[in-house]
Give the backbone structure.
Amino acid sequence: MIAFACPTFAGTVVTPTEKVPNSQWPFFTDDLNFVGLKTVLTRQLNRFKTVNLNGTIQYGADQYPLTKVRDSLSRFLAIVEQYQACSPAGGVKCIEWVNRELRRRFNLYQPHLVPGDPHYGENDPAFFTAYYTPLMTVSKTRIGVFQHGIYALPRSLALKQKSRDQIDFHDALENRGLDLFYGSDLFNLYLMQVEGGGHLLVKDGNKLVSQYISYAGQNGLPFRFIETYMMKKGWIPDGSITAQRRFLKAHPELQEQIFSTCPAYVYYRLSNTPPAGSEGIPLTGNRSIATDHNYYPFKGGLAFISSTRPSETQPDPSSDARPFMAFSRFYVDQDTGGAIRGKARADLYFGEGDYAEYTSDTEAERGTIYFLMLK
């Protein structure tokens, strides 16, 4: 596995936040009943063992040593474990105890928005989208339907800078010892590049062997979403994955024209774990988020989000649409992304599977985000 370097933070990391008065604290509930929190907290705490925590971080007017971020996760993990020992026998009393403990031991912060910031002065000022890990079947060799390469990062700058059109349609990286696997669908490979990693089922005779791949680098060219071009041409009614997939399948003769509008190309490395966030920590489904690195450069903070998301089921089998439902849960900030911009902006990682893919395509919701720091 490639080692990810953690940034060195000289002086104080200042976050664009303000303290929430006691009278305005929400009542904390978790729609997943705290499932998955031990995994994400343990992964982040293990990462902190390898990180220099000599700096300081500021939330609102309060300044903390960076070790306090780690200690916040440790204390919260203890609260999670006690809650899980209490529930379900204790019922509502258990979550009430969690809220008392959080009020007693933590300070709470929210993004400090000023005129000019998106949604300043509005209710539910935070904006959330979603991402996921694509799952696809691939081959180790170029055979049959498996004609589209998945490549490792070239050492040669000239090869690394090849465009998507050169790679996908003119075999610019073939016979260079860079091919990791071959996929059968260019759109699926494009979606995997949007997400930065994937879960592959590799054909090995009559067996399918599980293999993760993670982001290793890219060619340095601009990333442009192909749905923008397709909508401008009037070829699709909206930018949904469903609409894009349907049009590309019906018009294979236009695929090179369409994909070439996105010259950026992503390279991968093999991984034994789910795709990692910006500091090499395996992401945890429904528990990891990405925030704007310009505002939240130090990763590992404990967050609480309340918003809406698609239902796991669709009431009408003849429709792709699903109703949206309210939810709230705890997260750890472990990632960043080029499209994540703003003080009150987060991308929610939903893991793998059909629901995760659907949510990554449809989630564009308002809500609230808070950050918790141990007193």
In short: The longest strand covers residues 207-218. DSSP finds ten helices and 17 strands in the chain. The CA atoms of residues 292 and 338 lie 8 Å apart.
